[in-house]
């Protein structure tokens, strides 16, 4: 009898990954998550977000004892002070990070050792929409391009298929390519 032993690969705890998949298959409610961020205006176009807790696997997370803090600002040419990346640049980081994380998990689950992965993400925006100088222009990106450079212990076709699978399973890719409803509530103090 052949027994497949799964081990950690690419920094991914593969046994835990498969145990998680099995647990979610047995109890789909475990897959319901809610992520949260809190943002506070600093000055001008500068704001600061704090990300710490989330709800997932049917419980509130208690493992993050220190919040992750991210600033956002606009460059001086757009009336900011350039204290941090713009909010739309965070979207570029988010898609790169999501695709790369998925790639790491998928490659590990399929027994492929990765040697190097790099990506470049470019997004095009016509600011006429945001500025209101051409209201017919959309406010957001008109296009985003992601390019990968990858090497691993698999052939070219397999490495391409790993990235394609990561793209199909990426939450950030889904939101950017399909959109999602966003509800905005206001509490005036």
From TrEMBL:
<dbReference type="InterPro" id="IPR052924">
    <property type="entry name" value="OsmC/Ohr_hydroprdx_reductase"/>
</dbReference>
<dbReference type="InterPro" id="IPR036102">
    <property type="entry name" value="OsmC/Ohrsf"/>
</dbReference>
<keyword id="KW-0575">Peroxidase</keyword>
<dbReference type="Pfam" id="PF02566">
    <property type="entry name" value="OsmC"/>
</dbReference>
<dbReference type="InterPro" id="IPR015946">
    <property type="entry name" value="KH_dom-like_a/b"/>
</dbReference>
<dbReference type="InterPro" id="IPR003718">
    <property type="entry name" value="OsmC/Ohr_fam"/>
</dbReference>
<keyword id="KW-0560">Oxidoreductase</keyword>
<protein>
    <submittedName>
        <fullName>OsmC family protein</fullName>
        <ecNumber>1.11.1.-</ecNumber>
    </submittedName>
</protein>
<dbReference type="GO" id="GO:0004601">
    <property type="term" value="F:peroxidase activity"/>
</dbReference>
């Amino acid at each position: 009898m052949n027994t497949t032993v799964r081990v950690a690969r690419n920094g991914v705890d593969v046994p835990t990954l498969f145990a998680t998949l099995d647990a979610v298959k047995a109890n789909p409610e475990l897959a319901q998550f809610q992520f949260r961020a809190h943002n506070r205006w600093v000055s001008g176009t500068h704001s600061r977000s704090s990300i710490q807790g989330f709800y997932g696997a049917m419980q509130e997370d208690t493992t993050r004892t220190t919040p992750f803090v991210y600033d956002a600002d606009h460059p001086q040419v757009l009336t900011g002070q350039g204290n941090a990346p713009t909010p739309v640049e965070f979207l570029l980081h988010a898609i790169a990070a999501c695709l790369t994380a998925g790639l790491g998990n998928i490659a590990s689950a399929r027994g492929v050792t990765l040697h190097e992965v790099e990506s470049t993400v470019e997004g095009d925006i016509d600011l006429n929409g945001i500025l209101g100088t051409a209201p017919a222009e959309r406010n957001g990106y008109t296009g985003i391009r992601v390019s990968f450079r990858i090497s691993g212990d698999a052939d070219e076709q397999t490495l391409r298929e790993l990235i394609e699978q990561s793209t199909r399973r990426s939450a950030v890719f889904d939101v950017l390519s399909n959109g999602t409803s966003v509800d905005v509530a206001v509490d005036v103090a």
